[in-house]
Amino acid sequence: MNVQQWKEATKDIKQWEKLRCPICIEHPHNAVLLNCSSFDSGCRPYMCNTDDRHSNCLDQFCKSSGSCPSASTSSNESGSNQRKLACPLCRGEIHGWFMILDPARELLNSKPRSCSYESCDFVGDYSELSKHVLSDHPAIQPLEDDLRQLTFQVNKFF
């Protein structure tokens, strides 16, 4: 690694340290980068993409509009009668999202976060938090309005 590559890597790490999910205002675990209409102008909204036992900011964000574009770069297949998702930073239209690169994902997943359940004081990284939720909150199920609720109920009996 030459000096220029090292400077670029350090610069990226410093940027990743500052990242916050605009929904939960914490380091985004299992983060995705939203592709909004201002992406080319420098808008970079990162959001948590955890499962249904965590805060799951991306799903909450999508549910807020009643529609969710695909995880790829664009989705113009949704009907014109559906509301479009607006970027939480610039209010531009969301066209989809990207999975972030492994070094950034590993760094963000290593950041401590608090348990999302009321009256629980546990704090840990993404891996520790996942284990904690399964061991300390096993009875917690997805919310009734969660689209994966049906899948959860079906799998529970098989």
List the helices and strands and how they pair.
Layout (H helix, E strand, L loop, with lengths): L2 H16 L13 E5 L9 E2 L9 H7 L30 E6 L2 H8 L3 E2 L8 E2 L1 H11 L12 H8 L2
Antiparallel strand pairs: 1-2, 1-3, 4-5
What would you note in describing this structure?
- This protein is of the alpha+beta class and 158 residues long.
- The chain has a domain at 9-69 and 84-111: Herpes Virus-1, CATH 3.30.40.
- 32% of the residues lie in helices and 11% in strands.
- It has 5 helices and 5 strands; from the N terminus they run H-E-E-H-E-H-E-E-H-H.
- The strands form 2 sheets. A 3-stranded antiparallel beta sheet has the order 2-1-3, with no helix packed on it.
- The longest helix is centred in the N-terminal third of the chain and has 16 residues, at 3-18.
- The chain is globular.
- The protein starts with a helix and ends with a helix.
Helix content: 25-40%
Kindly report the spatial arrangement of strands forming the biggest sheet: 2-1-3
Note the gap between the termini.
51 Å
Rg (CA only): 17 Å
Q: How much is the average pLDDT?
A: 76
CATH architecture of the domain at 9-69 and 84-111: 2-Layer Sandwich
Order of helices and strands: HEEHEHEEHH
